[in-house]
Amino acid sequence: MKKQQGFTLIELMIVVAVIGVLSAIAIPQYQKYVAKAEAASALATMTGVKTNVEAFVVENGIFPVETVGGQTSQDLGAPADDDLPLGTISFSTQKTDSGHIDFKFNEVNVNKLLQGNTLSLKRAENTGVWTCLSTNIDKSLLPKTCSGS
Asked: Does residue 103 contact residue 81 with C-beta atoms inside 8 Å?
């Protein structure tokens, strides 16, 4: 009698089916984790600039925009656009001492769940309280301190 060695075709097909089911669940979850990490990275980049913006508001009495007083986003500690692989940072003034720092995600080389979307840090008028928000990024992808629409 010859001893059986190896696997049957049925056994191999079952293994392939199990791997297929696991990957169908794992890949979308992995994409969400990547998007969450990219959103958290954008928030961390903007938070680093927030202190300098606050100092600018205290010194000048106005929220910075790209051309106010010769200041650019790089003068306020924001990385240059070439140094940000995920997107770009810009400043928007709403009133004298309020406005927001916006991080606009690129259309390429960014998770497809974030492409073209914007994450903002908004400074409230008079109180100086900062809030993180986005109107076009799914709430499940935002960092815990941010709110969505």
From this structure: no
CA distance 76 to 48: 10
Within-domain flag for 50: yes
pLDDT of residue 76: 76
Q: Which residues of the chain have pLDDT under 50?
A: 68
What does each C-alpha distance from 6 to 1, 13, 19, 66 come to in angstroms? 16, 14, 19, 68
Task: Give the CB-side neighbour count of residue 86, counting CA atoms within 13 A.
Answer: 26
Torsions phi, psi of 148, nearest 5?
-115, -175
* Domain at 102, CATH number: 3.30.700.10
Strand partners of residue 148: 134
